[in-house]
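Lab notebook page, bench 4
Experiment: in silico fold of construct C2
Operator: M.H.
Input chain length: 283 residues
Purpose: comparison with the prior construct
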Amino acid sequence: MMNLSELIDVLRYKNNLSINLHDATGVLSVPPLMLPQNKKMHSKPFCYAAKTTGRGYFLCTHCKGLCCEKAQNTKSYFFGTCPYGLFELVYPIVSDGKVLCILFIGNMTENMKKTKKKAKNACRAAGVSYVDLKKFLKEIEPAERVRILSLARLIESFILLQASALPPIQKSPDTLHWAILNMKEYADAHFKQQITLKSLSKLFFLNEKYAGRLFLKEVGISFHQYVNEKRLNCAARLLKTSDKTVLSIALDSGFNSISYFNRAFNEYYHQTPGEYRKNAPTA
C-alpha cells in the first residue's frame, strides 16, 4: 500500500511544485503518514537560497509561523504570497474540529513580473544575493488554483482515511514527544541558521518555557546546548577537513561571534580551535 511520502513523490513527478506538511499533532510521526524532514519543510532550491542569511531565514520562518497560526485558528485554507513573492496554498487538514497537520503547496507564481520585483526587494532587505536567487526562478511553476486545490483535497483524503484507522497516538517511554522530535529534526537541518527555542516552540504550538522544560527532560540537554553541540561538531569536522580560517569555520557552523565560538569550543573539546586543527590526525 502506498504511504504518504510516496504519494507526494507521485504528485510532484515531472513538476517543480513544493509539497510539504507541517505536523500539529504527531500524526506525521506514525506510519503510513510518517514523512522525512525534507517533506516537512520548504526545501526547494529557491527556498534554500532565500534563507542564506540570518534576516532571510527570519523572513521565511516568521512567515511560516504566521501561516501556521492562521491555519490553526481559522481551520480554513487560504492562498497567499511569501515575502519573496512565491504563491502558495496553505491548507489545514482537520478531523473532528482539530487540525492534524498543515499542508503547504507552493513554488508557484501568478505573475512572474510581480514575483521578481518582490523577490528583489526581499533580497535587498535580507542581505540575500538576488543574482543567486533569480537562477531558480526558471523552476517556478505557474499557479493553477483549481488544480492545486484538487491536489490538496487528494492529500487531505489520504491523510484522513489513514488517520481514521490509526489507534490514538500515545507516547511510549522510548520515543520523544512529537513536537520535541520535530524540533530536534528541525535543529538538525537548520543549526547553521539562527534558530531559537522561541521560534520553534511557536511553530509547533507550544509555550516557550514548557517547550524548553520538555526538551531538556526528553533529550537530556537544553535546546540551546543541543544546537551548540551540532555547531561545534560541524566546526570540528571543518577544522579537520578544510583549510578555511577559524573565523570562516565559526560563521559557516552557525556562530556569529568568534569570541563566543572560541570559548565554547575550548569548553567542549578542551582545546582551542587552532590546537584541535594542529592535533587532528592527517588522512
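Observations: The first strand starts at residue 18 and ends at 23. The CA atoms of residues 29 and 80 lie 28 Å apart.
Next step: discuss at group meeting.
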